[in-house]
Write a structure and sequence with these properties.
264 residues; alpha+beta; 10 helices
């Protein structure tokens, strides 16, 4: 069973919160999206992939967050006796706060910061557990593959100059991003191997039901796209939801076999 313990100030219960390319590869794409959003959303790569490039005005938010996090212990969590250090947690929280701020969300309040910190620590715990299991199974990424992934990543951002500008604004280094991509690649490969999704299907009736439900929420249904036009998009979303549920279930099973201590 999951052995979860929180030290200082008192124990608490952890809560986890036709022939087109899409139609051919939708299950693989959906699993990748689930991995990015659910498991490794707190990494640097996750924010870049969302199109986030922080503006200068976010620096105040970063300072406020950093000030709060300096009060944390040097080790913020233990996962099967392996440490999650404060500085790593702090960087993830800052990135998350900046990401929300860039989208117009006020994250300066205590409630918002508490939720961000909880989300980040849970993501980092999940990531740590999966990396531990990946190491046991000998799953890694070669330097050649890692360099290619980094090159692809830089190309997606618009080239080397855009990449340099982005990491400068984020107060990151190329090595940090490279290590983040490495972690994400290992997590993705492990879940690709362990989470069975071939049997997951979305029936046409499910798509139609979802479409009709969405139609009821639209002010002017007559202006909404037709079911035919929306079919593939809705089907993809429903598939992603099902894969997400199965992935969460699998990660929960790993947590049940893990000892987790949150130190704040």
């Amino acid at each position: 069973m999951e052995n979860t313990e929180t030290i200082q100030p008192e124990p608490r219960v952890l809560r986890r919160k036709k022939d087109s390319f899409l139609s051919k590869h939708w299950k693989k794409i959906a699993l990748i999206l689930v991995i990015i959003v659910v498991i490794i959303g707190s990494g640097a790569g996750g924010y870049f992939f969302r199109g986030f490039i922080s503006k200068g005005e976010d620096s105040n938010t970063t300072g406020q967050v950093a000030g709060v996090l300096k009060e944390l212990p040097k080790v913020v969590a233990y996962v099967n006796s392996e440490e999650i250090k404060r500085e790593d947690f702090q960087k993830r929280v800052e990135l998350s706060s900046q990401s929300y701020t860039s989208q117009g969300v006020d994250v300066t309040g205590e409630q918002a910061q508490t939720q961000i910190r909880e989300n980040v620590i849970q993501n980092m715990v999940n990531e740590k557990i999966i990396l531990q299991y990946s190491s046991r199974d000998g799953i890694t990424v070669s330097d050649e593959d890692l360099n290619q992934k980094l090159a692809d990543f830089i190309e997606q951002l618009g080239g080397q100059d855009k990449f340099v500008e982005a990491i400068k604004v984020q107060n990151l280094t190329e090595e940090y991003v490279k290590e983040d991509i490495k972690r994400q690649s290992i997590v993705q490969e492990y879940l690709n191997q362990k989470v069975v999704i071939d049997d997951i299907e979305v029936a046409d009736e499910e798509v139609e039901t979802s479409y009709n439900t969405l139609l009821e929420t639209v002010e002017k249904p007559e202006e909404a796209p037709s079911l035919e036009d929306s079919f593939e998009n809705i089907k993809s979303q429903l598939l992603q939801q099902k894969i997400q549920a199965r992935t969460n279930e699998f990660v929960d099973s790993l947590r049940q076999e893990s000892t987790i201590q949150i130190m704040f």
